Amino acid sequence: MEKIEFQQLDETLYYKKLANGLDVYILPKKGFSKTFVTFTTKYGSVDRTFTPIGGKEPITVPDGIAHFLEHKMFEKEEGDVFQKFSENGASANAFTSFTRTAYLFSATEHIFENTETLLDFVQEPYFTEKTVEKEKGIIGQEITMYDDQPDWRLYFGTIENMYHNHPVKIDIAGTIESINQITAEHLYTCYNTFYHPSNMLLFIVGNVDPEEMINFIEENQNKKSFKEAPKIERFFEEEPQEVAIKEREIKMDVQQPKVYVGLKAKNTDLSGDEMLKNELAIQIGLECLFGRASDFYTDVYENGLIDESFAYDFTLEKGFGFALIGSDSPDPDKLAEKILHAVNHAEEIFNEDSIGRIKRKKIGFFLRALNSLEYIANQFTRYKFNDMNLFDVVPVIEKITLEDVKKAFQSIQGESQQTIFKILPVSRNQK
Amino acid sequence: MFQTTKLAEGVSLHIRKTTQFKTVNFSFKWRAPLTTKAAAERAVLSNVLQHSNEKFKKSAEFRSHLDDLYGTMLYFDVSKRGGEHTVVLNVETVNDQYLSNHPVLNDVIDLLQTVIFQPNFENGQFVPSIVEREKQMVIQRIESVFDDKTRYAQQRLTQILRPNHPASIPASGTIETVKEVNPESLTEAYYSMINNDKIDIYVAGDIDVEAMREKIRKAFPFKDRTPQTPAVNEDSKPAKDYVKEYQDMKQGKLHMGFSTPVRFGDPDFPKMQVFNGVFGGYAHSKLFMNVREWESLCYYVSSSYAPHYGLLYVISGIEPKNEKKATDIIFEQLEEIKRGNVTDLELNQTRAMLVNHLREALDLPRGQIDIFDQYKDLDEEFSVDLWKKRWHKVTKEDLQEMASLLKHEATYFLCGKEAE
After folding, report:
1. B69 touches chain A (CB under 8 A)
2. Could you list the residue ranges forming a coiled coil in this record (chain A) (predicted)?
3. Nearest CA to CA, how far is B61 from chain A (Å)?
4. Would you give per-residue pLDDT tens digits along chain B (420 residues)?
């Protein structure tokens, strides 16, 4: 087992690659009574066209299948896995993102039993046509719930505007129609292709002894046999640099209009340190333009164009990336115009003083976040899947210069990369 | 856990030294009786105090200063508990030991003193333009509840269930009461909060307890006060026991309200906590297993116990046409508990989850503060083991008793217009 020390952060990380290819990371935390464990596969909603394990030709599976599979992993012949976790006092959960599916639990007791439950349930699939059918009603209601959430519609509507072909524009849960096509056989195909240990990462953080834990995990894994897995081949259509739709609006039963400006990223083939630096520099740039201390914020706040829902964020993965900026607003057009004005004049707005201040703020934010075991496990996994290291964040931020921010920001700055999406209230007679 | 010192009559300081975190956390809690008017004034007040102060008159300057203090997080918020309204100031700053060359803790305490005692006044009052702008912010916050259908349905249920009662008064007041706030009334509300409220100050982190106590004592010279205790409210009765409303939406939001005589801190309180866990608090609970896993009627279904109001809510998102079916199954699960159909497994799972949730919450600085704050008023020393023992004593018969004490008072159903 490898031991990696981060002296300034006062953290020690343990790492081992097991014989079956599984990456295991353990971060002991002094003083905590809780342990948080995530078991994550590099498989998300965008992985819809791929060559299945043992197959020759690429196939395209129904939308929403990664998320459907996540739901179905919890059901076994002998019952529901939640029952087992509850018995050992663990809160279990799972989530599916564009690029990952994570299974997780947190507990303060029975850590070995719970870890075993986690490893075993994710590594022993059980799908039947009957259980698959049953799940369609449940996920159907999950999809309907999101359909009624204006914030989710705003988020996805903006992404739909940006992308021509990339499956990031498809809702993670799919649609009622697409999930209706899913069969048990589909689930096995996806499972066998993407849930091989060599495509997965186990992260354990909390009140654990690293030696004992790694031995326990190795013993568990050595009992199971996995076929040698070839490298997974995923296929994506060519994606143009410009957005698909410049501007669009929908109506919903809401009080306030809502608007997002989306900025589609050009540089989406980065990985490792280069990606980390690019991502952090763009985040610093956004904060400089739109943060609470910015001229933009003072202006739109004083003129009543935003409220407490104002937010901005940058997402970057392999093959896609975007910044979103927006708010509930009585005048969404005016707000969008001001956001784009700031983006188009970014180079004049960026300055040494602001960048220095924001760097300090981000370092503080990162250190605060290290109080959260959930943050550490989830973010570490995300970074690792892109060959980045979470614990490099502080040194990388420290080195970022004004020039770096200007240069990185160009990735989201072109006019053809900008889109606007609005949600407007339906006219209501009774109101 | 926390060491408590009385700084003045009605003002307590609670300090905890712990090496668990990379940050130092402060929390100031000002408490006063909850009325719609007080809630509105204090919601605007907390926004205005967060906006600026005498030293940093512009919000951007204030925020820049916080950024320079390594992104010290500082925010005001409002909440309620029983008949009390709370204005809370939460602050989290990085522990100096992780900052190679620039200690910030003393600067943060200086800033807190400014934020609390030196508001941004013009002629002895809050600045009218800032007050107007922050009123608008609070109004938009209240309006935004409408856009989140689950929150909206829950708000409607409490309005129907307990009209004109703290259980249904929003912590930010109502649009009408916020509109009535003006610089003069707000300034009055500020002085009343500083001079009359019951105050609890919390500090948690890797600090020197003695030195911190003296710093706080000096920096925050709150005077003696005799805080008003909130009036004991008679529970109001629901105007109707069933209300159905329509909006342009797809899912049906089923919200049911039950009452129980068992309140926070009562001898039966642990029984009611276990009851809620067996009934609908978790993924192993009867509601989840039957309404979701067995009948596939929903994605979420759960019960939650509001012990300060003696209420229990059940919520679920379903297809509108399944309203009756879902309601029947929910009532059937309650009947099951009344009949004593609870397994040892269900009891043990619930006990384990209750203990785990408490322990986990204590792994967060904010969790330590909030749990201690909630349990400190009980006449005993708080410990996880104490509560663990209590939950372990709860029997199947106790749950039968809790179930039979539960009274369904009202149901609210929100769904699309073309439903049925």
Report:
1. yes
2. none
3. 7
4. 899 999 999 999 999 999 888 899 999 999 999 999 999 999 999 999 999 999 999 999 999 999 999 899 999 999 999 999 999 999 999 887 777 667 889 999 999 999 999 999 999 999 999 999 999 999 999 999 999 999 999 999 999 999 999 999 999 999 999 999 999 999 999 999 999 999 999 999 999 999 999 999 999 999 999 988 887 778 889 989 999 999 999 999 999 999 999 999 999 999 999 999 999 999 999 999 999 999 999 999 999 999 999 999 999 999 999 999 999 999 999 999 999 999 999 999 999 999 999 999 999 999 999 999 999 988 888 999 999 999 999 999 999 999 999 999 999 999 998 644
The answer to whether the Cβ–Cβ distance between B360 and A106 falls below 8 Å is yes
Best CA proximity match to B360, nearest among A298, A43, A108:
A108
ipTM: 0.92
Domains of chain A: 2-222 (3.30.830.10), 247-425 (3.30.830.10)
Pairing mode of beta strands B198-205, B125-126: unpaired
CB atoms within 10 A of CB A183: 13
Decide if A308 and B353 are in contact by the 8 Å CB cutoff. Answer: no
CA distance A344 to chain B (A): 22
Q: List alpha helices for B52-166, DSSP H.
A: 59-68, 105-117, 128-144, 149-161
CA distance B206 to chain A (A): 12
The reply to whether B296 touches chain A by the CB within 8 Å rule is yes
Q: Do A364 and B360 touch (CB under 8 A)?
A: no
Chain B hits for A88, CB-CB cut-off 8 Å, are 352
Cβ atoms < 10 Å from Cβ of A231: 7
Numbers of helices and strands, H then E, in chain B: 15, 13
Give B293's contacts in chain A (Cβ within 8 Å). 80, 138
Give the residue ranges of chain A where pLDDT is below 50: 429-431
Inspect the interface and report whether the beta carbons of A10 and B98 lie closer than 8 Å: yes
Coil, strand or helix at B227: coil
- CB-neighbour burial class of residue A241 (10 A; exposed 0-12, middle 13-18, buried 19+): exposed
Q: Which amino acid is at B284?
A: H
Min Cα distance A67 → chain B (Å) is: 13
What are the tens digits of pLDDT across the range B107-142?
999 999 999 999 999 999 999 999 999 999 999 999
Cβ of A307 within 8 Å of Cβ of B133? The answer is: no
Average pLDDT value for chain B:
95
How far apart CA A228 and CA B363 sit, in angstroms, is 41
CB of B101 less than 8 A from some CB of A: no
pLDDT digits (tens, 9 = 90+) for A289-314: 999 999 999 999 999 999 999 999 99
The owner of tokens 């050595």 is A222
Is residue A70 flagged as an active site residue? yes
Nearest to B117 by CA among B248, B44, B28: B28
- The pLDDT, as a whole number, for residue B420 is 45
Residue of B nearest to A362 (CA): B71
Which domains does chain B possess?
Answer: 3-219 (3.30.830.10), 242-416 (3.30.830.10)
Q: How many residues does chain B have?
A: 420
Q: Which of A27, A89, A160, A184 is nearest to B350 (CA)?
A: A89
Paired tokens of A225: 């046999």
A368 with B247: Cβ contact below 8 A: no
Identity of the amino acid at A123:
Q
Residue where the block lists tokens 């007040």: B45
Which among A2, A57, A70, A347 is annotated as catalytic?
A70
Look at the block and give the residue holding tokens 């007041």: B173
What is the distance between the alpha carbons of residues A277 and A275, in angstroms, rounded to a whole number? 5
pLDDT tens for each residue of A217-250: 999 999 999 988 889 999 999 999 999 999 999 9
